[in-house]
Specification:
Blueprint (H helix, E strand, L loop, with lengths): L9 H26 L2 H6 L7 H9 L7 H9 L3 H9 L8 E4 L2 E4 L4 H19 L7 H9 L7 H17 L1 H13 L4 H4 L1
Antiparallel strand pairs: 1-2
Length: about 190
């Protein structure tokens, strides 16, 4: 759906949004499988089919960016996003907690960092289409300033993986991750 179609019906938006979810989940599944994360590949973003996420996402669907972005612009928050990030451990927002009276980032387990990278690449491919490059996910990450909100070690690993993708491509990166995980290596130390 293009930016110019200002009046799609609810049914059109439903089918287009479901198509977007399917395309995104298929890519994440493929990437997770390449990394050896089979369960995460199969279960990635299943919460998108819940009423708490599906209905607002259809309502705010535009086709060229996340519906949560539009909902946030209109209301200052997104109920769908609040539900999504609370149900999915591959989002850095899940890994914040109040410890000793202070809100702080918690170091993400490495398998969720990898799933998050797969998620970011898939989102860039789905929304950028032909404009996607090996640098897209890194550029999105750097421009979003997410590293400021991540645990420092998580931010460092995330950026190292994205820079590796930029330099060597997805297939090489995912093969390296799978090999390291199969060897029970700590990606925080060896990637």
């Amino acid at each position: 759906m293009s930016k110019n179609n200002n009046n799609p019906s609810f049914l059109q938006k439903t089918f287009q949004h479901l198509k977007t979810i399917h395309e995104h989940r298929s890519l994440v599944r493929k990437f997770c499988f390449q990394c050896g994360l089979y369960k995460q590949g199969l279960t990635h973003d299943l919460s998108k089919y819940s009423f708490a996420e599906l209905l607002p996402s259809i309502h705010y669907y535009q086709g060229y960016r996340s519906p949560y972005t539009k909902e946030k612009e209109l209301h200052g928050y997104s109920l769908g996003w609040l539900h999504h990030k609370g149900c999915n451990k591959h989002h850095w927002e899940y890994w914040w907690d109040k410890i000793d009276g202070k809100w702080q980032a918690i170091k993400m387990p490495q398998n969720y960092v990898v799933e998050s990278v797969c998620d970011r690449i898939a989102a860039c491919k789905v929304y950028q289409k032909e404009q996607y490059t090996q640098s897209s996910a890194l550029n999105y990450y750097l421009n979003s300033h997410d590293e400021q909100n991540l645990h420092p070690q998580t931010a460092n690993l995330f950026e190292r993986i994205l820079r590796y993708i930029e330099k060597y491509g997805e297939d090489s990166t995912f093969k390296r991750i799978k090999d390291l995980l199969q060897q029970k290596k700590d990606l925080y130390e060896v990637f």
